[in-house]
Amino acid sequence: MTPVHFSFSSAFMLGLMGLTFHRTHLLSALLCLEGMMLSLFIALSLWSLQLESTAYATAPMLLLAFSACEAGAGLALLVAATRTHGTDHLQNLNLLQC
């Protein structure tokens, strides 16, 4: 495993572990998701550069567009949850009480 591959794999795994184990606030969960998407974007960009093919050049931009949509939807959910529940704690968000 090359050092570059190890660094992006460890960045993705750290974001996944942060999402899994530190689920107290919705904002921290969204930041962990963004970190995971950033490591995927950089890894996919380097992969398409190594292949030197124009067919794979659009994949990082497509992933970046989906990441921006995910971030926008997550922030909209954060604002809506904070307005209705008064906090962004994930323990207070119960779908059965809505």
TrEMBL record:
Transmembrane regions: 6-22, 29-49, 61-81
Any coiled-coil regions, as ranges: none
Entry membrane topology: Multi-pass membrane protein
Main location: mitochondrion
Reaction catalysed by this enzyme: a ubiquinone + NADH + 5 H(+)(in) = a ubiquinol + NAD(+) + 4 H(+)(out)
Keywords annotated in UniProt: Electron transport, Membrane, Mitochondrion, Mitochondrion inner membrane, NAD, Respiratory chain, Translocase, Transmembrane, Transmembrane helix, Transport, Ubiquinone
One GO cellular component term: respiratory chain complex
Class of the enzyme per the UniProt entry, highest EC level: translocase
Pfam family for this entry, one: Oxidored_q2
Gene Ontology biological process terms, A to Z: ATP synthesis coupled electron transport
Similarity remark: Belongs to the complex I subunit 4L family.
A molecular-function term among this protein's GO annotations: NADH dehydrogenase (ubiquinone) activity
Enzyme Commission number(s): 7.1.1.2
General function of this protein: Core subunit of the mitochondrial membrane respiratory chain NADH dehydrogenase (Complex I) which catalyzes electron transfer from NADH through the respiratory chain, using ubiquinone as an electron acceptor. Part of the enzyme membrane arm which is embedded in the lipid bilayer and involved in proton translocation.
Cellular compartment(s): Mitochondrion inner membrane; Mitochondrion membrane
The protein's name in its UniProt record: NADH-ubiquinone oxidoreductase chain 4L
